[in-house]
Amino acid sequence: MLDGSSATRRIIGILLAVFAAAMTPASATDATILVKSAKTLFDDGDYEAAEEALKLALDGISEAEPRRYSACLQNIAYIEFLNYHFLESEKLYEKALNFTTQASGDDSLDLANNLYGLSRSMRRQNKLAEAEPILQRIASIRLKQLGAEHRLVSNSYFDLAVNSERIGKPQEAISYYGKTLCIREKLYGKTSKALTPLVESYCSLLQKCNNDKAPEMLERLQCIRTFPGPDVVLPPKEADGNGWIDLD
């Protein structure tokens, strides 16, 4: 006898076969069914079938519904990313940008999330210089929408720091590491273990550049390692809108 999950997947598989064999594009009602099926398949780890369902659903989602159309494109892009198809993921995130802008505006968090997906796919292909202005735009949007001391703003500064260091801009990287640390120590405490990876990266770059702040940061790192403050469980980046997007 099939368990609940297996039975559900078999039913969804039959539905996908029916939709794929149909001579006409999916209707709006079909699209809703397909999107829900795709989420079930995705949660169950069947990325290939989930992507197939989403591609069929696109036929039934009007471009006049830019939010749903963009979300569907981005979910396909996310699956491609998880499957290490970074170029295809990049193209899909880029295609979604116009629809995201139509739906949410030029400085929305939805757009920042779309741009993050794009930048992430680009950086995995070592397109670091091309990703830099995109990362800067994400930081600008988040700063405007969330304020200067928000965790997501610190995440943007950290992304910029790492990217700047990798493309040979150490002084810019030092500045971004400093901004990241300033926010995170307010959020988590000056000796929180959550600061360790950041302070390690910051300290290493300061030492490479023979920066005057290097001894102070090294002492700070040793303090965190020896007398750590309360640990903080940070949410995964997917929880910030950078993973699967619910359409309905």
If you had to describe this structure to a student in words, what would you say it looks like?
By secondary structure, the protein is mostly helical. It folds into two domains: 1-61, no CATH class; 62-240, Serine Threonine Protein Phosphatase 5, Tetratricopeptide repeat. It is 71% helix and 0% strand. The protein contains eleven helices and no strands. It has helices spanning 4-21, 28-43, 47-58, 66-82, 86-104, 109-123, 128-146, 151-166, 170-188, 196-208, 214-226. Helix 1 runs antiparallel to helix 2 (28-43) and helix 5 packs antiparallel against helix 6. It is elongated and about 65 Å long.
Fill in the keyword field for this structure:
248 residues, mainly alpha, Serine Threonine Protein Phosphatase 5, Tetratricopeptide repeat, 2 domains, 11 helices, 71% helix
Can you lay out the helices and strands and say which pair or pack?
Blueprint: H1 4-21, H2 28-43, H3 47-58, H4 66-82, H5 86-104, H6 109-123, H7 128-146, H8 151-166, H9 170-188, H10 196-208, H11 214-226
Helix pairs in contact: 1-2, 1-3, 2-3, 3-4, 4-5, 5-6, 6-7, 7-8, 8-9, 9-10, 10-11
Give a concise summary.
This protein is an all-alpha fold. It folds into 2 domains: 1-61, no CATH class; 62-240, Tetratricopeptide repeat domain (Serine Threonine Protein Phosphatase 5, Tetratricopeptide repeat, Alpha Horseshoe). It has helices at 4-21, 28-43, 47-58, 66-82, 86-104, 109-123, 128-146, 151-166, 170-188, 196-208, 214-226.
